[in-house]
Amino acid sequence: MREPAIRRASSADEVRLGALQKRAYVKYVPLIGAEPQPMAETAAGLLQEYEVWVVDGVEDGLAGALVLRTASDHLLIWSVAVDPTQQGTGLGRRLLDFAEAQALQRGLQQVRLYTNALFTENRKLYAHLGYAETGSETYEGRELVHMAKSLAATV
Question: Considering the entire predicted model, what is its pTM?
């Protein structure tokens, strides 16, 4: 069976995108005592301010979403959201690979992201995939860890 395509989101995806962001990030609320930033952002705002890519799921929902922003020297992965029923299937990795391919298509040699310092599983996964921690900052009372991956070796 063929995997669903990664496609550019449109305004028609707004409700489904908002629901996915909530489903994907709700597990972190008890850990940090608040909604993670991707949960707090409106889907309309994401679609307006960022480049959003989605993967259709079953029952009219989205299986995953990737939120990107292009900078002059890197591509920022602002959010990777995977429906809890799809976690562990490789979809998150597929979205990260897609982001890296997008960076290379744009002539960018680096992908960056940030995550909450308490999200240790995410930090381990990103490190396993070649992302290095480059610094940290306090944002709205939360400690964020910045990570980057050089794509120069893959060209």
Answer: 0.92
- Supply angle C-alpha 8, 96, 3, rounded to 5: 65
DSSP state of 5: P
Going edge to edge, which strands form the sheet with 6-8? 6-8, 51-56, 62-70, 75-82, 110-116, 142-150, 132-139
Closest by alpha carbon to 134, among 49, 74, 72, 50?
Answer: 74
How high does pLDDT run on average in the chain?
93
- Contact between residue 35 and residue 43 where contact means Cβ atoms under 8 Å apart: no
Residue 153's pLDDT band, with cuts at 50, 70 and 90, is: low
Residue 71 has what DSSP assignment?
A: -
Helix (H) or strand (E) holding 81: strand 75-82
Q: What are phi and psi of 88, to 5 degrees?
A: 90, 0
Q: Which three-class secondary structure state does DSSP give residue 106?
A: coil
- Residue 82's H or E segment, with its range, is strand 75-82
Cα–Cα distance list, 146 to 91, 131, 151 (Å): 22, 9, 17
Amino acid at position 99, single letter:
A
Share above pLDDT 70 across residues of the chain, in percent, rounded to a whole number: 97
Task: Give me the residues paired with residue 8 across strands.
Answer: 53
Tokens matching residue 141: 């009372």
